[in-house]
Amino acid sequence: MVSVPLRTPAPVLPGRERPASLPETLPHPEESHRPGSAGEHVFQDEVGSTARADRFYDDQLRDRLLPTMVEFIGRMEMAFVATADGHGECDSSLRAGPPGFVQVIDEFTLAYPEYRGNGVYASLGNLVENPHVGMLMVDFTESLIGLHVNGRARIMDDAAFRAAFPGHGGEQVAGRRAERWVVVEVEEAYIHCRKHIPRMERVTQRRAWGTDDPARKGGDFFGAKGTPRRVPRPARRRFPSTTHLGAGASRALRRRPHSR
Description:
By secondary structure, the protein is α+β, with helices and mostly antiparallel strands.
């Protein structure tokens, strides 16, 4: 586990100067009783939205899955998953399956399956370096609402997952079993407003859930094969994140007495 000092220089993106009003250092998340990252708090103060943000934290942000959230997750057929490596470089991906493929273990824990893919393991590789994960599930057809779930993840192979959580797992897709499971310890769960969620119409279409057929998985849809790479490949830079590299940076909100 990488440790983070109590104060870390706030990130400055290449080509951008730090606004004069921003501090040279951001407080460690554990130094504030407020939910959210130090960066959130800085910008809320900059634009005068601290009170509005606190109302959202108080009214909508929870440290566990409420019964209505559990019901919502149980009918979702897809989830957007965000991860970042130890350098702070991000990746987002889509996970999908029949309703219930994201399994709620209890109000503080959920899990989703990983099937054989392209062998890159972008999301799982990030989680090896940095266990923080952000999930977004959206109902495009009925409620037109979204649910964010942020937490810490660990990777378990299928047999270990079934042994640890009897009654969970199972063959969700006929003839296909998950290779691994990502088990997420929930730290934050909150609403994504419906303002910009488009309404979609459900159609009758058989989906090849969990297929390993390259053509059904999309093949070379974008014609990438054989196109030249940019040479030389730019060096990876270390991103001085203040929120997600250390053991103390993850906020276990449910251990706070004021959490709801």
